[in-house]
What we know:
The protein is built from no helices and 8 strands. By secondary structure, it is an all-beta fold. It has a two-stranded antiparallel sheet.
Amino acid sequence: MLYCEHCENEIKSDDDFCPKCGVLYTEHNCEKHSEVDAEGVCLVCGKICCSECGQFVGQSFLCDSHSKIEVYQSMGRV
């Protein structure tokens, strides 16, 4: 069994990112800034973001557009 280093969620060996927190396990470039390494995947829209376009809100990575959404037990309240 493999576990996410960030949230300790069980993950599969072929996962590109953690479905619970959005941490990336493979190298990707930011969708908006193609020359910058991505930091995570937004759990709401799936956008791959650098630290300028997204951030961790609690345990979840969210893009700037969704960073104000309340996330509880890996679900966003809208």
